[in-house]
Amino acid sequence: MEEVIKKVTRKNPVESQILVIFGSNGDLAKRKLLPAIFQLYLDNLLPERFAVLGAGSMEKTEAENRTDVGASLLEFATKGATDNPEKLQLFLENVYYQKVHNETEEDFGLLKQYIDDLSARLELPQNIIYYFSIPPFLYEVVAGHLVKYGLNEEATGWKRIIIEKPFGYSYDTAIDLDKKLRNGFNEDQIYRIDHYLGKETVQNIMVTRFSNGFFEPIWNRKYIDRVEITASEKIGVGSRGGYYDTSGAMRDMIQNHLLQVLAVVAMEPPSIFDSESIRNESVKVLQSLRPIKPAEITQNVVRGQYIETLVDDVIQKGYRQEKGVAPNSKTETFVALRVFVDNWRWGDVPFYIRTGKQLPEHVTEVTIHLKPAPHQLFKQRCVAQSTNMIILRISPDAGVAVDFGMKIPGAGYKVQNVNMDFHYSDLAETKISEAYERLLLDCMIGDSTLYARADAVKASWKFVDPILQAWKTNQDIPLYFYECNTWGPKEANLLFGNKELKWRPPFKKFKTQ
Ligand code: BG6
């Protein structure tokens, strides 16, 4: 398996290419994309001949754009940029700009001309990635314009598009968007980015499972009692109220990131470790999710919304007071749900997933709760309730911990829970790459393993769509309000259906108890 994993982390030679960023003056480009590309440059992972072509609606010269990109890098790629001023200048020489108004068809004619000139001037083949860092309603518009001017044609080099989430707004719109993109691009040219899959620690779930002899034999319904996946955030919606109010936690986090994490936790081992085999296995999990019928929603799904709260003498705004949010909004900022994967391995094992904003910690982790030993010899002697857990901490303080009972030294047989843990930070020489670095490099190489495939996107919409529909149409389904800095509505614990069980509170410093 080790050999197999090396194949995925391989550093394939990256062909000379052009990265066109639509929406290059936007927040995502400044905060994530440009710093990620610059870091790849610092790590010598970019090809020798490479151009980043910003395509934005703002009128500006090449020189002005370079100044802007430099300023963004100093702000957001802080250490890499401030520590390497010369490299920063060299990098900026590879940055170009063309004004493109995404809704103006003719601008794409000018873009084509610009690309032809640039590739001739720099002797660059027309291997092009188009990154759609633009509002979702423009995806099909921009794709259509690219096709119109033949910017999708591969005679002069390969063409790939990277699409940000949300991929569609519902099951039907996702299918419709896919159809429209497929008018000019094949599935193997479409890279649907889900930054959770780019996280080193999410990939490590596969390695933990499939490269060790001792996890996989117990990774099934016989030994696992339940699985918890928590992605909590300390912040509210901030300046993204306008977007978030049309999305909500189900579309923003569950439909994509957390169902993908669930798929990685629950998938069967692929026969070989390549993009198609891995994605074939993970999509089967999504297709096996037991649909939640409208009448079962209240027992299986809890939604909540944060309200104005005094936290440490400071008033935290309620969701309805956030900019861009409707004053009577019913959008959920918290979701907890119980999900079943109806297959041979997982039959009747509940997966509990929750996510929310304005919770006490920013933590993402998966907890595998093992069933207790069949005969509890030491039950009376346990100093606390005995638990066996495997915790896969995605962030922060990434790592893995195993929690189990140990004899307290001394006379008698007193048992206490202890844990063995590994923290990525202990690997002194290792830097954990940002998700966008990994994903951009993969797309440059043509490796789509960590990108969501159309069938997976479809399967996860199919699962969440009926819940969203029921919320929209059935006024009787409650929206619970919760105070900021709490773990969401207390009703979320009712999903366990057993008074003794509740959500495991994740700690900032990663440990099991
Ligand atoms: C984004 C969501 O995709 O993921 C945000 O749109 C959310 O609302 C973010 O804050 C969480 O990502 P991370 O990597 O901070 O867990």
UniProtKB/TrEMBL annotation:
Q: What is the native source organism of this protein?
A: Paludibacter propionicigenes (strain DSM 17365 / JCM 13257 / WB4)
Q: What family is it from? A: Belongs to the glucose-6-phosphate dehydrogenase family.
In alphabetical order, the GO MF annotations are: glucose-6-phosphate dehydrogenase activity; NADP binding
InterPro entries per the record? G6P_DH, G6P_DH_AS, G6P_DH_C, G6P_DH_NAD-bd, NAD(P)-bd_dom_sf
> What pathway does the annotation place this protein in?
Carbohydrate degradation; pentose phosphate pathway; D-ribulose 5-phosphate from D-glucose 6-phosphate (oxidative stage): step 1/3
- Cross-referenced HAMAP family: G6PD
Q: Domain Glucose-6-phosphate dehydrogenase NAD-binding: where?
A: 20-204
Q: What is the protein name for this chain?
A: Glucose-6-phosphate 1-dehydrogenase
